[in-house]
Amino acid sequence: MMKTLLFLTGSLLTGSLLLADISSSDLARLGNDLTPFGAERAGNTEGTIPAWEGGITTLPAGYQSGDHHPDPFAHESPLFTITAANYGEYRELLTAGAIAMFETYPETYKMPVYPTHRTASAPQRIYDATKEFAPTAQVINDGAGIAGAIRGIPFPVPENGVEVLWNHLLRYRGDAAIRTIGQAAPQRSGRYTMVEFEDEFWFNYAREDIGPDELNNTIIFFKQSVKAPPRLAGTILLVHETLDQVVEPRRAWVYNAGQRRVRRAPQVAYDNPGTAADGMRTSDQFDMFNGAPDRYTWELVGKREMLVPYNSYQLHSDQIDPKDILSPLHINQDFTRYEKHRVWVVEARLKEGTSHIYSRRTMYFDEDSWQILAVDQYDNRGDLWRVSEAHCINYYDVPTFWSTLEVHTDLVAGRYLAIGLDNKMPMYDFSIERTERDYSQGALRRSGVR
């Protein structure tokens, strides 16, 4: 039976090994009635979700590498706007987090809804790898890792929630990238201090010249340097993101500018506070979710049509300033864009005997890219606590569909964290070339000059 029916009941993890179990008929559908990543190619019956026709595959006229990405849909106006006065009409299309935002901020919160464009795309070699390794991809160690896959989406036709999660963790985001971004956690009054990061990624899993047995349990090399404010500047975080973090926890080190020393940083994981985030997000909320999945069970609830942030080129624009976005209580929703898309819904519930500040997380994964678009996070009493959204664009010079701004809103504190502010920053550079030596402890020490 077609796995894309609404709200199928997903299986929970049992045992130490789950085979991919993709049928030959499902494999044959990839690139046909399913997209190369396993989404439904066809639109919906109402015509409000169009068919996927390859996403964005050509650069807009006048675009040059290094530019901020012009909005392909700048000419469009919202179809309608959802407010506290009418959100009940759209309740079935809204996340629990969106509903809570309307109820918490009835005077100011709104969602402008635009026509849907299925812009997600990736290089052909990533599509080819998805089809090549889907028959051999396996979940191992009760979901803590995978085996038998490289480069592509490991589970394009998922059978359970942890397979959906691994599709997000291993999705294509380029071969390597460097970016300069801002992070701000405004007070209720709207006052904030901008933290400036230089982030560098080398996606080991995506390398063209590597096989599944050559990963050395490392999927991403990541370096984050704090550039501002002066009291934090000079601190550098280095991470080797391991594939199976139960067998081998994430390898992390921090260069402390004040001490001029490199130290191991095992605290950069799970629910420990995110870097310079004023306690407004956990380490594993970076990129919506990262790291080991072992503290949760992952239930695949099914697929739904929902209104989610998408094609958020206005928030990425260099024609506005971060101060235009960073309004009190929540970001300025005038610059947001929501569209109707099909998303996979996964419920993560804290396992008995483990600990985390979030007892439950409801995650919404884009069917076209496997990017997490929204997360509802619940406290240990079961109350909705924090609401997260990833405002994404197609970086069509790569191409890859990835967030340009993540927003984590604390409903209790009346504050939020925005990370990814790049409006007046140098544009992402996806052309950098790196080797494993660039991410050694020695390289970290050499780069640690305040």
Summarize this structure briefly.
The protein is mainly beta and 450 residues long. The protein is built from 7 helices and 18 strands.
Describe this structure in words.
The chain is mainly beta. The chain has a single domain, classed as Lipoprotein localisation LolA/LolB/LppX (outer membrane lipoprotein receptor (LolB), chain A). Helices cover 11% and strands 29% of the residues. The chain is built from 7 helices and 18 strands. A 13-stranded antiparallel beta sheet has the order 11-10-9-8-7-6-18-17-16-15-14-13-12, sandwiched between helices. Mean pLDDT is 94; it is low at 1-17.
Count of folded domains: 1
| CATH class category label | Mainly Beta
- Order of neighbouring strands in the sheet with most strands: 11-10-9-8-7-6-18-17-16-15-14-13-12
Helix content: 10-25%
Annotation, overall tally of beta strands: 18
Distance between the termini: 59 Å
The CATH topology assignment is outer membrane lipoprotein receptor (LolB), chain A
What characteristic shape results from the CA principal axes? globular
Could you name the ranges where pLDDT drops below 50 across 5 or more consecutive residues?
1-17
Q: Secondary-structure element sequence?
A: EHEHEHEEHEEEEEEEHHEEEEEEH
**Mean pLDDT figure:** 94
CATH-derived architecture? Clam
The CATH superfamily appears as Lipoprotein localisation LolA/LolB/LppX
Task: Tell me the structural class.
Answer: mainly beta
Compute the gyration radius: what is it? Answer: 21 Å
